Write the structure tokens for this entry.
Amino acid sequence: MRKINLLLLTLLILIFTGCEDKKTNANAIPVENTTEFFGSKTSDTSNNMRFKIGKKEAISSHEPVSLNDTFTLKNMKNTHYTVNVSNQKVTFKENYKAIKLITFFATWCPPCVHDIPYMNDLYIKYQKDVFLAAVLVHDDINENALKSFLAQNEVRYFVSTSTHNNDFASLVAKTLKLSRNFSIPFTVMYVEGKYFTHYEGCVPVEMIEYDINEALKVLKETR
């Protein structure tokens, strides 16, 4: 009889313990499901998504060994800029505007496309003081399709389609100690060639505009 009672008590304990476990799991705080896209195409334009250059796509034609190199950026109109990277300093030989805003993007990246109208607004508003350059990275779009893309999105600023783009992007990311699988859009601001700030992924255009005005204040104070 005592053995039967002990067995029943054990079963009751197991039953209540199982119910308590289920109750605890049901009330658990949900964990956010964060999705990362590695070089993939999607129609989702949510700003909460992070678009990253995948490992395979991020490997440039040569891995940057030093933090110093010179690149040629050019657009489809054959406008050239010679760009020198020296640690966190980036200079354009053929452009003398004090502020350089460089954004790395791909046509397959919805947040990058989402940023274009805002970049257009910045270009128009600050073109006297800011050189805005977009650098197409890890994108196999053909020339005709790219022309249509730029026309459809009314891109007004300089867009580099150079074969140096990927290597340039890799070195800039390395100077900032970022992973070579960096998020895009990836935008960097330089003031008189010196690193000022950068943005990974989509950020409010007001943030970039605020930093431009802060950079203009710095320039005004130092001149």
The chain has one domain: 51-222. The longest helix spans residues 2-26. The two ends are 97 Å apart (CA to CA). The chain has six helices and eleven strands.
